[in-house]
């Protein structure tokens, strides 16, 4: 790829991803057991509200689409930042314990203290953040190297996973409630979920844009970044906490949705390169598009069964990811 | 060599130890505006010393003075405007043009939130490209350049930092012989033109002697000799520093080391 090709691709990506996101949102709003035409959606959103379809759009589909946008954006931003600061293109929010921490907290809330199930989002969020911070400090030894963070992450993930399974075995009669959450989905999410998550998600996304420059410097390696005046340890810690905040927010409303944080930034990187000024915004838009589109597919394609979006994402994401990797090998 | 000007870098009673690399009671001074080379056998602590001088590693005890100021008192960004370094790591992100890589050298002068270089930044970037002879490659992707041109582009990034002191960790290792001489001559010319103080770790002793004004020899983490390279390099020096039996001669004023194989 030469400079001109790269710049063309960047421009295309910046133009196309917002359009694709709009299309995905329109798809999510119009398709369903009651089809509603785009024109009708328009008049519902910006004008009169026919009884039934108005309720379907305003109370069911619109909040779900918006939650999909936030969840996808947060997961993709989290993955994009982590892949850079961990110097590992295969890093995703799972590697810093976000999934395991959030999962354990959610299982405890749902199977041990079901009477407090309204605390689930907050609990999952805190669990995700705590696990990430714990892993970071376990990896600390006069600086936390990405390799040590990955190793500490593997150990802590195994430990938290074991605890999660332990709770599920001991309280096996209540496991049914937690299964949909573990496979990740947006079913039944509404305005109050959005209200809970939106402040964290928007704050996280705004902060992510501020992390662009330090994240770019970290791509040069720790020594070079430090020699260019960056406070490497502080920057890496803050970016990891930010990534945990973003992924924790997504996990708290949508459960354990995998692959978005891994696949989207990686695919974007293969297409337009790793410069965070472009990688981050395009990943955010791409992640949002992917989740909204896949969630709509998951709820309409297999009617009357509604699949959790996490399952479909893994099913579509994994082969796509492999295809991208193969393709790059052929095209050096 | 006696310099009347204050030294660019001084070390006093420096001790350091990490992962088996040790420096013992280092006392040295780097002359201002000159090219200094640090030589010594593998594992003698050359690169470690360079890391300590650059602030990448901090000593257990003793002090490093940069322009007479304690290195520990320097805020990171101020240090990055005073001293730049080409580390051994060859890591450069994908899909970067040479100019974009060199532009990273301006980071210590830019606010963390701005992305567009100012006119002054562009001037420094152009000058760094010109000093290293990479202007013609400025818009090419870094990874499409040859090893020698990549190394010049990396050096251009450190020059864009517009510092008084440039440290280089083995700038010629892994380059072919022609590019080795090209890079060394280029550094000499840059030192001559800008007056920048250069300190480099070198493996090739003849190159070190031929191109540098001052030589510091390390052995097992201690300074064993320091002074003008041509005065230092002799049979006794090779034996003392490298445990090597060899003699030194000069062919057309270029040093040649002839090993005594028996």
UniProtKB/TrEMBL annotation, chain A:
Does this UniProt record's set of keywords contain Amino-acid biosynthesis? no
Molecular functions (GO terms): transmembrane transporter activity
UniProt entry tagged with the keyword Transport: yes
User: What compartments host this protein?
Assistant: Cell membrane
Regions crossing the membrane: 62-82, 94-113, 119-138, 150-171, 191-212, 237-264, 276-293, 305-325
An example of a Gene Ontology cellular component annotation for this protein is: plasma membrane
Q: Which InterPro entries match?
A: ABC_BtuC-like, ABC_transptr_permease_BtuC
Q: Which UniProt keywords apply?
A: Cell membrane, Membrane, Transmembrane, Transmembrane helix, Transport
User: What is one process in the GO biological process aspect for this record?
Assistant: siderophore-iron import into cell
Membrane topology note: Multi-pass membrane protein
Q: Which family does it belong to?
A: Belongs to the binding-protein-dependent transport system permease family. FecCD subfamily.
Q: What is this protein called?
A: Iron ABC transporter permease
Tell me what organism the protein belongs to.
Answer: Paenibacillus albidus
UniProtKB/TrEMBL annotation, chain B:
Q: One short Pfam family name for this protein?
A: ABC_tran
MF terms from GO for this chain are: ATP binding; ATP hydrolysis activity
Q: Which domain of life is it from?
A: Bacteria
GO cellular component labels: plasma membrane
- GO biological process, any: iron ion transport
Q: Which key words tag this protein in UniProt?
A: ATP-binding, Cell membrane, Ion transport, Iron, Iron transport, Membrane, Nucleotide-binding, Transport
Compartment annotation: Cell membrane
Membrane topology field = Peripheral membrane protein
Q: What InterPro entries does the record point to?
A: AAA+_ATPase, ABC_transporter-like_ATP-bd, ABC_transporter-like_CS, P-loop_NTPase, Siderophore_ABC-ATPase
**Which residue range or ranges hold the ABC transporter domain?**
1-245
* Protein name, as recorded: Ferric citrate ABC transporter ATP-binding protein FecE
Q: What is the lineage of its organism?
A: Bacteria, Bacillati, Bacillota, Bacilli, Bacillales
The primary gene name is fecE
């Amino acid at each position: 790829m030469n400079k001109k090709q790269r710049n063309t691709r960047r421009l295309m990506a910046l133009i196309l991803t917002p359009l694709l996101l709009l299309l995905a949102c329109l798809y999510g709003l119009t398709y369903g057991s009651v089809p509603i035409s785009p024109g009708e959606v328009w008049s519902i959103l910006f004008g009169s509200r026919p009884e039934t379809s108005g309720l379907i759009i305003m109370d069911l589909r619109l909040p779900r689409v918006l939650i999909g946008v936030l969840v996808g954006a947060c997961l993709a931003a989290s993955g994009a930042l982590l892949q850079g600061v961990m110097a590992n293109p295969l890093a995703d929010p799972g590697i810093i314990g976000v999934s395991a921490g959030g999962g354990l907290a959610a299982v405890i809330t749902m199977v041990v203290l079901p009477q407090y199930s309204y605390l689930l989002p907050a609990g999952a969020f805190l669990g995700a953040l705590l696990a990430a911070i714990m892993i970071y400090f376990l990896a600390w030894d006069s600086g936390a190297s990405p390799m040590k963070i990955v190793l500490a992450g593997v150990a802590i993930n195994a430990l938290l996973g074991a605890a999660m399974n332990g709770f599920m075995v001991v309280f096996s009669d209540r496991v049914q409630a937690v299964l949909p959450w573990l496979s990740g989905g947006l079913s039944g999410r509404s305005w109050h979920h959005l209200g809970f998550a939106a402040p964290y998600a928007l704050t996280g996304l705004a902060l992510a844009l501020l992390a662009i420059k330090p994240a770019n410097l970290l791509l040069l390696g720790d020594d070079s970044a430090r020699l260019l005046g960056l406070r490497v340890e502080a920057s890496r810690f803050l970016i990891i906490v930010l990534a945990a905040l973003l992924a924790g927010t997504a996990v708290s409303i949508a459960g354990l949705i995998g692959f978005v944080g891994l696949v989207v930034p990686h695919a974007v990187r293969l297409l337009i390169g790793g410069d965070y000024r472009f990688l981050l915004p395009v990943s955010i838009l791409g992640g949002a598009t992917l989740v909204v589109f896949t969630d709509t597919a998951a709820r309409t394609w297999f009617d009357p069964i509604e699949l959790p979006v996490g399952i479909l994402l893994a099913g579509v994401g994994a082969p796509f990811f492999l295809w991208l990797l193969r393709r790059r090998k052929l095209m050096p | 060599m006696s310099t009347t000007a204050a030294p660019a870098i001084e070390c006093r009673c420096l001790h350091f130890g990490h992962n088996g690399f040790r420096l013992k009671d280092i006392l040295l001074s780097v002359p201002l505006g000159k090219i200094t080379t640090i030589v010594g056998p593998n594992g003698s602590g050359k690169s470690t010393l360079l890391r300590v001088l650059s602030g990448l590693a901090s000593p257990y005890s003793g002090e490093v003075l940069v322009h007479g100021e304690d290195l520990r008192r320097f805020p990171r960004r101020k240090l990055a405007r005073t001293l730049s370094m080409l580390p051994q790591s060859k890591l450069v992100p994908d899909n970067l043009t040479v100019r974009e890589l060199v532009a990273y050298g301006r980071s210590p002068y830019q606010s963390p939130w701005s992305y567009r270089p100012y006119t002054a930044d562009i001037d420094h970037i152009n000058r760094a490209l010109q000093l290293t002879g990479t202007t013609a490659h400025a818009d090419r992707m870094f990874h499409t350049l040859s090893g020698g041109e990549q190394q010049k582009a990396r050096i251009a990034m450190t020059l864009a930092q517009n510092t008084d002191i440039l440290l280089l960790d083995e700038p010629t290792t892994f380059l072919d012989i022609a590019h080795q001489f090209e890079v060394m001559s280029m550094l000499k010319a840059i030192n001559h033109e800008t007056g920048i103080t250069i300190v480099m770790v070198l493996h090739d002793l003849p190159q070190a002697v031929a191109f540098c004004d001052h030589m510091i020899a390390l052995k097992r983490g201690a300074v064993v000799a320091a002074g003008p390279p041509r005065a230092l390099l002799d049979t006794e020096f090779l034996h003392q520093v490298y445990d090597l039996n060899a003699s030194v001669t000069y062919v057309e004023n270029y040093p040649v080391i002839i090993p005594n194989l028996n």
